[in-house]
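Supplementary Note 3. Input sequence used for the single-chain structure prediction.
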Amino acid sequence: MEDMAGKSILVTGMAGFIGSNVIVNLVKKYPDYYFVGVDKLSYCSTLKNFEEIDATDNFVFIEADITDLSHMEQIFEAYNVKIVLHFAAYTHVDHSFANSIIFTNNNVLGTHILLEVSKEFNVERFIHVSTDEVYGDQQDVISVEETTVLVPTNPYAATKAAAEHLVRAYHISFGLPIIITRGNNVYGPKQYPEKVIPKFIFHLLNGEKCPIQGTGEQKRSFLYTEDVVSAFDIILHNGVIGETYNIGSKTEHSVLEVLKELMAIIHPGKDFMDYLTFEKDRDFNDQRYYISVEKLEKLGWKKTVPFKEGIRKTVKWYRDNKDHFSPLFKTQQESDRPMYLELLKKCLLNTIYGPCNQHGRPASPTEVERGRYWPQKPHTMIGEKRLTNIQECFENVIKDGIEGDLIETGVWRGGATIFMKGLVDYYKENRKVYVADSFEGLPPPDPKYPSDSGDEHHKVDYVSVGLDEVKSNFSKYNLLDENVIFVKGYFEESLEDLDVEKLAILRLDGDMYFSTIQVLEQLYDKVSVGGYVIIDDYVLKPCKTAVEHFRKSRGITDELKVVDYTGRFWRKTKE
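The predicted structure, written as discrete structure tokens, is reproduced below.
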């Protein structure tokens, strides 16, 4: 067994299902190793997956995208990364049929960037996590060994096969010390409820029917997380450079058999036919994968958790942790959420009847999407992309259990804060929405702030919207109640004694240097770790300068991400 004490081990995709289970186990088991976890926190990742090791001394988490070359180089250099465990990938086959290019970008380009950086920094071991799906449909084969030709049949599997070829090429061309793994379907605690087992569990716990593609006779081999964790532990320490290892089970179950097993636990004695509904099959659906694990067993690995036992453990975990993925997955009754939120956006943007600018000229779809016009009637001018940014930030906040209220400073007709309140109410969150503005327009430039010299926003009556009008706009959506707090006055005074303990989202729409810097200085410390700071008007030099000055003065290195031409945001990772 190779000793890795003192070495930094980078684990990508560590906030996802398999990555989090592996890293939590390894961090606890090997206190002398140092683990650097990276994840871009996409829809199926959550900070909750690794909160039990968040305070340990041999682990650090960094929110990062593996397709960002410069950020990866910074991480490798800063932490002297010597070993890579590469789990990060888009893995949902159905999604790959609908949007395959994003799979190529993440799974192929992301892997290529990691390989290049690993070569640059002379890593000692690069373990690439692939899938049994690269082998393709294996209906007539007894079992598939690691030397079998790859014949992927869906876009997801094709991107994983392409990534494998890159990994192998870097080994042959540059001598990069690589190991490849190809695994069966994994199940267990913390799995996002889109794969068959957790999805069925969620439906059954809610008393709903389980959707089955095609006939349900497709066979899969399933492996419980404990066995997968032990496999990666053994491969990390004993795997032979240049080799490929299958990780799998010798038993198979059809989708219908999986449903019957779950029914026996969740609804014993009931007819499973009452809890299923058949739907159209995928464009192509492999009927069977069955892989040989002899090579891995020779390293000392052995499957220890029978399927029935693993299923019982998994059901118990989801019963005991119903809020782990809340509120994104609740019941069928909430399936109208996307429709409601999209309709709310369209009402705020007035795209239902066709928005016009302040001069009455029809706005183009691009102008509406990007918020590049001053509208005549709509309640917001920030555009669809920036409204969606608010939604994505808020859904991440509630998914990860981040405490705090929401605030926008500089609200115009109130559209962004109305949308915030719509999100809060629909997700049934107990949070306040603060609506902060002078409600008298912008003041003349203050000589104390040279960056604002020459600004003439104070002369534009169009941007001056009174408090009563904003309240009336909230009322039009039935969203005006005691949890909407109006904060009237210029920020230097109105925010100084604002009675708010924590903020989950701080959104600034202040145009000028003084309004931006004053908000940041007075409210940033109230933003919870894991919360968001959203900047509008970053395209305006005074606003951009204020943000840059503040981040530099506070030593903030959290990535400043782009929403659109003028929107920026970052997620706070430390006090």
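The two ends are 39 Å apart (CA to CA). Residues 100-120 form the longest helix (21 residues).
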